[in-house]
Amino acid sequence: MHELLLIVTIAGQRVAIPAADVESVVELEALIPVPKAAAHVAGLAALRSRVLTVIDCTASLELPSGGSDRFKQAIIVEADGYPYALLVESVEDVVEVEMDVRPVRTSLKGGWRRVARGMIDVSGDLLLLVDTAALLAGPAAQAA
Amino acid sequence: MDDLLTEFIAETREMLEALGGVVVAWEATPSDRARLDEIFRFVHTVKGNCGFFDLPRLEKLSHAAEDVLAEVRAGDRVADPALVSAVLAVIDRIGELVQALETGDAVASEDDELLILALSQSAEEKEAAATAGAAGTVDSRKSIRSIRLSVDLLDRMMSGVSDMVLARNELSRRLRGAHNDLGVENAFERLSSCIAEMRDAITRTRMQRMDSLFVMLPRMVRDISAELGKSVALEIDGGDVELDREMIEMIRDPLTHIVRNAIDHGIEGATERTAADKPASGTLRVSARQSGNQILIEIVDDGRGIDGDKLVKKAIASGVLSAEQAERLSSHHRTALIFEAGLSTAKEVTAISGRGVGMDVVRANIERIGGVVDVESKPGQGVRLTLRVPLTLTIIPALTVSIGGQNYAIPRSATEEIVRARNSTVRIESIGGSRVAAIRDRRIPLVSLAEVLGIEHECPIEEQTMIVLKPAGGDDYALAVDAVHDHEELVVKPAAPVVMAAGLYAGTTLADDGSPILLLDPSGIAEAAEVVLDQNELDKLAPPAPRVEHREEGVAALLFRTFAGEKRAVALTLVERIEEVLSDTVKFSGGRLRIAIGESILPLEGCGDSVPEGQLRILRLSDGNSEIAYGFAEVIDLVTLGNELCPAASPGEVGGVSLIDGEQVEVLDSYWLFGQYAEGADLGRALVCALPADDPWMRNILRPLIEAAGYRTVSIGDPNAEGADLHFASAEADPPSDIAGTIIKLRARPEPSGANDDSIYRYDRAGLLTALSVHAGQKRA
Predict the structure, then answer these.
(1) What are the Cα distances from residue A48, in Å, to B119, B198, B222, B567?
(2) Among the listed residues B358, B328, B363, the one whose alpha carbon sits nearest the alpha carbon of residue B346
(3) Which chain B residues touch A56 with a CB distance below 8 Å?
(4) What is the pTM of this model?
(5) B517–A32 CB contact, under 8 Å
(6) Per the count of CB atoms within 10 A, which of B449, B470, B526, B762 is most buried?
(7) In this complex, which of B510, B515, B518 lies closest to A34 when CB atoms are compared?
(8) What is the nearest CA distance from B526 to chain A, expressed in angstroms?
(9) B633 Cβ contact list (under 8 Å, min separation 6)
(10) Measured between alpha carbons, how far is B375 from B388 in angstroms, rounded to an integer?
(11) Is the Cβ–Cβ distance between A83 and B495 less than 8 Å?
(12) A-B contacts at Cβ under 8 angstroms
């Protein structure tokens, strides 16, 4: 079965996200902070009259952040009726692949394990297929 | 027509439509169980709903069909073709009746009996039914006056309208800046009112009456009280209050639970009640009313009430509270323990309630929609539960505030008042380590928003503004922010769960400039700040002493900033007015800077040599007689000058230096200023000079000079000239004969005509003025 995947780079890794989850790719402008929110919430941004909750993927993966201010490219996803913007380092392309999801063989560090749905072959590269919901939920989800 | 009836009609019609295919299929395969069940459910529902309305025909028909179908389901009857037709005929009739309900047409009623007969078993009866004519059908469908709409579509509309409001606000902001012609303004006004109307209409689509909740209560109360052997009278009030549909659905379960609890645990049995001198029948009163932008739903019973002490014991026993915490609880808070999970003091766990998992869920559900639950009880007398829910989730009047450079919004509904910390009626105290604000005659806890949000902050608390908040159902407190900006109606959307998890926010909105703003949740902030200071405790303390100001003895002064950037002060009593004028009314003329205001020309000080372009702010200073305009950059504050004024080294504009808030501030020397610049000193009763009426030179050139010197002029021949102090005459003319008083003769030629010429050359200004003042002096002396 073929499906469309969006290839993006987060936390220095090229990963694949189901394109069906992604609404659009945007450049965010000003971010306002949300004090006392979980660490992976980078803030709020406005896009065409909608308030987006901006998620710092690196923080969600519990990896040391290299200064998220630099990266203002984001992919817009929706969950439970709320719009979110996932900060990504770069966006590559949408590819159509055979959805042959293989289990992850290597041991994944930290938050990667939580967001990984499996591995997928994209033009010869084996990329991690990422679960957007898990990225949105962030590390705290596990503590609950 | 009644809203509920409309609902019933719509629902029934919908079910009929859905049933259409099923009926046909059942006809084909009467033994199909699933289809049978569907049809059974339909007539069962119709019968159930009929109970709320006075619809005997529908009830009879559906009841009969239900009975028959129940028998088929139980296997006591076989669904033969005759039965199937009979059932279908009944369903058709139900459809006709429902249609007729809406259009108001009549449907022939004799057939009902026949239809019901047709359902029965006996062959004769069936014979009779078969011979009856076909039931008349209501022909043309009148126009349907209501439609069912998916909530999603309504949400889209609501969302669209909200976005329109935002776009309109942005347009408004842009228009404010530019200079627009009347046409643009008018068009914008029209657009605004159209949008406002649309917003109202759309908001109404989501509204539904409380009746839809209340309608189930009579039955429920009857059933439960019968089951428990109690007698309960139900009173309902305010069913016509309207609420957002989704909100109503969210309240349904909590309301049900509360009512059950009240009957189960609250209201006592008849014997217990009479023993306590109460009427044998308990009363349960459920009411709804609108209060501002909230709906208050109250459930009051006159049962045995909540025993706060028992709850506390249970709480300590189950570890929810420690003994010391329990000590500090007010009676109100003890009663409120019913909302703690796992605490039920019910002696038995009944099927209805008592498991102790109820009230905490009730509270959680109500809080989830932004509402609050509160409880009041007097042991032995009863319980009053109050649910407060917001009227609409979407457009909320709010205040924008800023802290640490960031803007936030606070719902106006929770705001009681706004005070500046510097206000003399406000005092900030520290009680037991927490800060308290004493405002006029009461004390409330003081919370620093910066602390709660954990942000870096420089503004000292004395400089801040405090907003007294009254979170729904909670205790008042004062929130210290840097500044309060504006109040407007904000379109608030719910925030993502991960943002709500912080517990401080109620939603998000967009500012006029398009940037996102978080709406703060007053209750959440109170909780985060651990506002534990009990209002009772605070009240018990002595009323706050009036602010003792040793500065009260001092002189009130206006502190301002000069164009040079320095802080200066001037005694407030000197300041008549503060005005903003255009700098082109200022001119350097007659030797100094003057400003034209209205009819007067005032000397202008404070600007140095150059006057700023555009608008100019001035203080109009007055010593009671004359006025001086003093230009300045901005007002800083009102202060009180102490008596200690260090005098200036030499006389000048600045009279001395005073210490204000630790800073050296120059104070203007009013004596020097007015002494220097005041003009046209009042000479007491101004000298009256009479001038010849027919002499153009005297009239046009002399008169202004004399008046500028402060004298009054009248024309000779004028009745007022009788008492004139001084007369002017032209030396060339014949001296007027009938004048008493001094005459000043003015000659046209510079040189005197002779040694005896006592006239003054008309253009000898100094000579003229001297003569005038000499006479004035003589006059006064």
Answers:
(1) 62, 21, 53, 46
(2) B358
(3) none
(4) 0.45
(5) yes
(6) B449
(7) B518
(8) 14
(9) B560, B561, B562, B563, B565, B617
(10) 11
(11) no
(12) 67
Tokens of A41: 């919430």
State which amino acid sits at residue B223: D
State the first-to-last Cα distance of chain A, in angstroms, to the nearest integer.
Answer: 35
Q: What is the ipTM of this complex?
A: 0.88
Contact (CB<8Å) B498/A51: no
In the numeric block, the tokens 């395969």 are attached to: B29
Which pLDDT tens digit goes with each residue over B628-655?
Answer: 888 888 888 888 776 667 777 777 778 7
Q: Which of A34, A50, A80, A136 to mutate to test the interface with B (most CBs of B within 10 A)?
A: A34
Query: CB–CB of B213/B246 below 8 Å?
Result: no
pLDDT in tens, B54-97: 788 888 888 888 888 888 888 888 777 778 778 888 888 888 88
- Region B574-599: mean pLDDT is 81
Instruction: Decide if A144 touches B, using CB distance below 8 A.
Output: no
Q: Closest chain B residue to A138 measured between Cα atoms?
A: B498
CA distance A139 to A62: 7
**Residue B464 in tokens:** 């801040």
The two structure tokens encoding residue B643: 């008596």
DSSP labels, A60-110 = HTT---S-GGG--EEEEEEETTEEEEEEESEEEEEEEEE--PBPP-SPPPT
Do the beta carbons of residue B409 and residue B429 sit within 8 Å?
no
Pairwise CA distance, residues B536 & B717, whole Å: 85
Question: CB within 8 A of B568, min separation 6: which ones?
Answer: B559, B560, B561, B562, B632, B654, B665, B666, B667, B668
- On whether any CB of chain A is under 8 Å from the CB of B501, the answer is yes
**In angstroms, rounded to a whole number, what is the distance separating the alpha carbons of residues B619 and B622?**
9
Going from the C-alpha of B328 to that of each of A38, B9, B183, B601, the distances in angstroms are: 33, 56, 65, 70
Neighbours of B697 (CB within 10 A): 14
Collapsed DSSP state (helix, strand, coil) of residue A129: strand
What letter does residue B268 receive in the DSSP assignment?
A: P
Among A91, A115, A116, A117, smallest CA distance to A40 is for: A115
